[in-house]
């Protein structure tokens, strides 16, 4: 009897270890186009894993948690991943999960209809984000100088994403390069108007990226494969069944703080997707270096750390093109 009890205890202990190994620690951000990534945790049991999600204010914060060994997977915009890799963080970029998601919005009471009209104006953006890179590229290709200090054609004001809307509403700044759904909110509430969607730079539509730690991929590859299949399934659900996406994002992520129109406009400008290319990440890296964003002493070479084999395998298994 004692022997049977010991065997049973041993089996239970082994099951406990296995169960613990199946937990995936995910870092995510609170944006509409990050919704499919957040939804992974809801369907994770069907994939044979448990996902513990932590939500961060911005991608650089999530990457700090990766660096600290607190996360296995991070959903961030590309520049945060690039900066982390440049600093020596052992991560691999494994997928894209949305594209676009940026908009240059001016005050509704000002006559700003083009980037050139920003001369002499104050423009808000979140420091270090993909919007920061897009703003720098747009201003430069329109012949405007810029700085966070007075004296240039455009003065940059650095604020967090929600604070940008408040500053525009309060008329403390003249325009914002904003993420979704905040840019759609500013327009739908009437205090902002679209100047442009900033996709005419070499970056095109910026891809939001998923990274995994090299340790996670190397030591727990079967779990990484399960997670990736879960990501593809969640994304397919959000693309094929937008009503599920809307309900989840509006109710679970934003607790009713965004309207149907806010969500619809946001996702129209930041559709869910799966893919990313080394070429896209290399172009983004080069522009970051050009404009001093991320301040990288040794910019990473995209083809060395953008690896989509897990994604390709998952898409094939689920018959997703």
From TrEMBL:
Lineage: Bacteria, Pseudomonadati, Pseudomonadota, Betaproteobacteria, Burkholderiales
Pfam families documented for this protein: NMT1_2
Organism of provenance: Undibacterium squillarum
Signal peptide residue numbers: 1-20
Top-level taxon in the UniProt lineage: Bacteria
Keyword Cell membrane set for record: yes
Keyword vocabulary terms for this entry: Cell inner membrane, Cell membrane, Membrane, Signal, Transferase, Transport
Keyword Transport attributed: yes
One GO molecular-function entry: transferase activity
Cellular localization per UniProt: Endomembrane system
InterPro entries assigned: NrtA/CpmA_ABC-bd_dom (IPR044527)
Annotated protein name in UniProt: Myristoyl transferase
